[in-house]
Design brief:
308 residues; alpha/beta; UDP-N-acetylmuramoyl-L-alanine:D-glutamate ligase; Protein-Tyrosine Phosphatase, Chain A; 2 domains; six-stranded mixed β-sheet; 10 helices; 31% helix; globular
Length: 308
């Protein structure tokens, strides 16, 4: 984009903690911190070191920068203490002074310029999960700050969007929903995925362990975790930590074996949730290749000639 003759009005950049660590010459007009949760503890010495890199985002702003913060996440507000007083906030738990929130009757509403405005019903969002309602509120605030009208915000959020590897529906066969959430490379993302479904869950977990305990997944699933199929390097640790979290906990060697094991446990009304909670690097170069292998294996199984 930087070398093109016609420049866009806005550029949206997602920055990881690794990128923020080396950030020097960069300025943000609108900055957002959506949530904080443990991650990359196989790289950082502790959680504080990880969060310290996240905090470098605020050094990229100035007095003209607008900040958007998750009012429901105390860790976010603590990390953003230097800018939080003047920030726009979003919340699933009720009104904020300025920003956006979810009402008791399920509407996404906001107050950006001093007047309350209604954006849309949360039930009209094309993405599943409470975390995506939160993301939609953040996106709405950012869009309004960038100059979009309130009406266009609702229109944009209603658009069907294809997000591969992010709670992507792969297939629904014989009443069983198969979901590819390979982008869930940490425990927090997998926990959010579990909370997105109210049907019995056969969960596929595994890959390269990143130093986080898996307890929050079990807590989110409670009685809905019907089976856990563990795979990859992290399988022994997953089984050790989660053996009492579901009626059936097993280990599978490779993608095809894991998909077949999940299929054996599934019944009409279930969801098979591929949300690994680990990085892919033990078996695949990235989460995209891992997700593609899952999708390919599921579809091959349903064609009656399973292959990976």
């Amino acid at each position: 984009t930087a070398i093109e003759s016609e420049q866009p009005d806005w550029v949206v950049v997602e920055l990881s903690s690794f990128q923020l660590a080396d950030l020097e010459h960069f300025r943000v007009d609108i900055g957002a911190l959506l949530n904080l949760a443990p991650d990359h503890l196989d790289r950082y010495r502790d959680l504080q070191a990880y969060y310290a890199n996240k905090q470098r985002l605020f050094a990229a702003g100035d007095s003209e920068t607008s900040w958007v913060l998750n009012a429901d996440d105390p860790a976010v507000l603590d990390l953003a203490d230097s800018v939080s007083e003047a920030a726009y906030r979003f919340s699933l738990e009720g009104p904020v002074e300025r920003g956006g929130w979810l009402t008791g009757d399920g509407m996404l509403v906001g107050n950006i310029h001093g007047t309350d405005e209604s954006w849309m019903a949360a039930s009209d969002l094309p993405l599943v999960g409470e975390h995506n309602v939160s993301n939609a509120l953040a996106a709405a605030i950012i869009a309004r700050l960038a100059g979009c009208t309130a009406a266009s915000v609702g229109t944009g959020l209603r658009l069907e969007c294809d997000l591969p590897h992010r709670l992507e529906t792969v297939d629904e066969v014989d009443g069983v929903l198969w979901v590819n959430d390979s982008k869930a490379t940490n425990v927090a993302a997998a926990t959010a995925a579990v909370r997105s479904f109210d049907r019995p869950i056969i969960m596929m977990l595994g890959g390269r362990h990143k130093g986080e305990p898996y307890a929050s997944i079990a807590e989110a699933g409670q009685t809905r975790l019907k089976a856990i199929v563990a795979f990859g390097e992290a399988a022994p640790k997953i089984v050790a930590e989660m053996e009492d979290s579901a009626p059936h906990v097993s280990v599978a060697n490779g993608m095809e074996a894991a998909v077949r094991a999940a299929a054996r446990h599934s019944e009409p009304g279930d969801v098979v949730l591929f949300s690994p909670a680990c990085s892919s690097f033990d078996m695949y170069p990235n989460y995209e290749v891992r997700g593609e292998a899952f999708v390919r294996t599921v579809r091959a199984l349903h064609r009656g000639r399973g292959s990976s």
